[in-house]
Design goal:
Elements (H helix, E strand, L loop, with lengths): L8 H23 L17 E11 L8 E5 L12 E9 L8 E11 L6 E10 L8 E9 L5 E9 L6 E11 L5 E11 L1
Antiparallel strand pairs: 1-3, 1-9, 2-3, 3-4, 4-5, 5-6, 6-7, 7-8, 8-9
């Protein structure tokens, strides 16, 4: 006659725990095997610096060489242009005149998101094409209340010399013409390594 093996419930629970915990340890080990800690010294990330750029954002919507193109029109003849979407490849210049030296491009889009006031969602990369910062970018994403004298938007990242960038930009309208072209002064405060 066969004898039953009697195991106390606490031993049984411990046995099950050991079996499953060893299984999950190897599973988690494989799942996170691609993650490694990195020494910040090896990435030259010891000293943060703040760089200030004063740039002029040239928004040209008129003529055959427009750098800002509306790809989706406003809904319901909205006075705030609610719902319109524009794609941009605007020059960033060192002076307010369109003929000033170009040091980069602002590439991205802006969307009119205000029903009752003219407010834009700005999503753009400031991509530098000149000097020490050539090939580096930082990204601005935020709300632009167009009628405010000064608008603040965050810098949320970057590449090249602006890897791990953060900071903010202050935008103020320098000029706006009847044909819709505008020059916006951007004071950019970029924290980077």
């Amino acid at each position: 006659m066969a004898k039953a093996l009697l195991i106390s419930p606490s031993y049984f629970i411990f046995f099950i725990f050991v079996i499953f915990s060893s299984a999950t340890i190897s599973i988690f080990g494989e799942e996170y095997s691609y993650v490694k800690s990195i020494n910040p010294k090896k990435m030259n990330m010891l000293k943060e610096k703040v760089t200030h750029f004063q740039l002029y954002w040239q928004d040209v919507v008129s003529g055959s060489n427009a750098t800002s193109v509306t790809v989706l029109d406003a809904v319901n003849n909205s006075s705030t242009l609610f719902g319109s979407v524009s794609i941009i490849d605007n020059s960033l210049t060192v002076g307010p005149n369109l003929s000033s030296k170009t040091v980069g491009k602002s590439q991205g889009l802006y969307v009119s998101t205000g029903l009752e006031e003219t407010a834009l969602l700005m999503v753009m990369n400031f991509a530098f094409t000149d000097g020490k910062y050539n090939g580096s970018t930082f990204t601005v994403v935020g709300r632009n209340n167009v009628n405010a004298k000064v608008r603040e938007m965050p810098i949320i990242g970057g590449s090249g010399l602006f890897r791990f960038a953060r900071g903010y930009v202050l935008a103020s309208t320098y000029s706006f013409s009847d044909n819709g072209d505008g020059t916006i002064e951007y004071n950019c405060y970029v924290i980077h390594y």
